[in-house]
């Protein structure tokens, strides 16, 4: 058999890949006629019924269970995490320059972060070999130690959220 160029009009599913859906409600002889497996009359026999969580009038599970705990996700600070290994890779690839102070804006400009959020937090995953000065909102103790061992420096600055809190707390 010679295989030529593929033609769009000859593209087909593999045999058995496409199963024709059972046509329901098409007479008694079809095996799915009359009520079309929807039971008798009533709300759920009609089209357009979507009753998620409905339990036939019984109090549904999501209302029977108590509400517990505390969720602060709306007000939580959104820190962007940067690992030391990714910083070193960006330095090796030439996306970041070790001269000067690296900050969140430099990380966004080189494509490491999409946006700043509430600040950048440096974590110690991976290793750093280049001496850099990086200005961030937060850093783990291990990350600070690793940067300082490489001959660099981590400058911690207050996040925007902390600044706003201190302004509000200060007497007028």
Topology:
Layout: H1 61-64, E1 79-83, H2 84-93, E2 101-102, H3 104-109, E3 119-123, E4 133-136, E5 138-139, H4 141-149, E6 153-156, H5 160-169
What is the general shape? flat
- Average pLDDT figure: 88
Radius of gyration of CA atoms, rounded to a whole number: 31 Å
- Poorly predicted regions are none
**What percentage of amino acids are in beta strands?**
5-15%
Amount of helix: 10-25%
Taking the sheet with the most strands, its summary is: 3 strands, parallel
Count the strands?
6
For the record, give the distance between the C-alpha atoms at the N and C termini, rounded to a whole number: 89 Å
Description:
By secondary structure, this protein is of the alpha/beta class. It has helices spanning 61-64, 84-93, 104-109, 141-149, 160-169; strands at 79-83, 101-102, 119-123, 133-136, 138-139, 153-156. The longest helix has 10 residues, at 84-93. It starts with 60 loop residues before the first helix and ends with a helix. The mean pLDDT is 88.
